[in-house]
Here is the input.
Amino acid sequence: MAESWVNSAEILGSDLPLELSGTGNRRAVLMSALREAVRSGRLSPGTRLPPYRSLAADLGLARNTVADAYAELVAEGWLAARQGSGTRVAERAAPVTPAHRPRTPERPSRPVHDLVQGQPDPAAFPRTAWLASARRALATAPNDAFGPGDPHGRPELRRALAGYLARVRGVRTSPERIVLCSGAAHGLRLLAEVVGGPWAAEAYGLPFHRGLLASHGVGTRPVGVDRDGARVGELTCRDRAVLLTPAHQFPTGGPLHPARRAAAVDWARSTGGLVVEDDYDGEFRYDRQPVGAVQGLDPEHVVLLGSVSKSLSPALRIGWMVLPERLVAPVVAAKGEREQFSSATDQLTLADFVDSGAYDRHVRRMRQRHRRRRDQLVAALEQRAPHVRVTGIAAGLHAVVELPPGTERSVVRAAAWQGLAVEGLAGYRHPGAEQAESEQTDGERADGERDGLVVGYATPAEHAYPEALEALCRALPPG
Here is the structure.
């Protein structure tokens, strides 16, 4: 007999539908209610939750809202998701009574300085140039741009991206094989639905991405990472796809070695697997021209995921998938009959922004700015903490500050007391990596778990950056 799951009333109480009927952030309300249900003990460890489709129907929410809430709570450790067994309350998520909560928080509620990776300085958004493109785009927009949207995305932007990606990233495609989405996470969600699992993923990567795949029934297993990127020789015929960051391994840094790029494509060809290439910051390389996309080696076995979240702003919610021909129709079908996620006017504006050359100019300007920020970080550490090593600095918007073994947690706490938001490297490590490494030889484990900080140098405002670096140096252990 199949195991049942608890219903929405047992999970969330009777008042939640009323709260969700308001105009606030429904995903945030749902996540808060789930956390409280676990904290209070109403949901005990191991309790199976309804499939996100069922809960969405019960609460009158969009499926994506519930799926995203599940994915984020998996990433935070409140829930656990495994292929074939659904989503459950994590075993470690024991109820916390007020008596057991610490009286003094470990860090200020609002950090003074922000060195968390993941986004550019909001003040750097090119407002004047964007407004000019918006005016031109609206003045010339065809009438159908203001009707129901095509799930492929606006043809103007798909044409602009096909030319831009071919010129800058070496991508081989046509506009018909580009499907627009709201970002890399949205693209992964669609691919999970179409491709199925299991997937392989780099041993270091975004927990949110792993959680999102898990919430859609796609389990991931870790592939080791060393100085040459992902060890793609560990891929097997059982993997339906592999998620890679070849241009700049996230978060450890460094491009995927050319021999491994070729090996990943050979694996996909021989097994019928799929390489999913997350090109999250491929345009920002400082020692030479950006590394070409793996997609250019075999467009029929590689999907390229990209967005403007790092180059322009995550607020725009515009991303793209460059797909093999066989996947275009299934992905569009999974997306729905109409465009629900990305504004047509924003798409038209971005198309003009690219075609007019404004996007190239903005990327060049930001590349210079980020390189200057990176150099300031390296110089500060050389002067104040010469005993630490900085890696991953050839590209991207962050660097890894390597720490002595066993010091990462204490350094993150020390940074919090300095009013500095910064993340440890351990938070990006695949939960299954330790078990996988225990089955390998000592030589193969040479580049396994390590202590470090993932330092994002793009976010702070110009005037605040020197003080953020000062706080970082104060938090580091003495040499």
Summary: The chain has a mean pLDDT of 86. The longest helix spans residues 358-384. The chain has 16 helices and 17 strands.
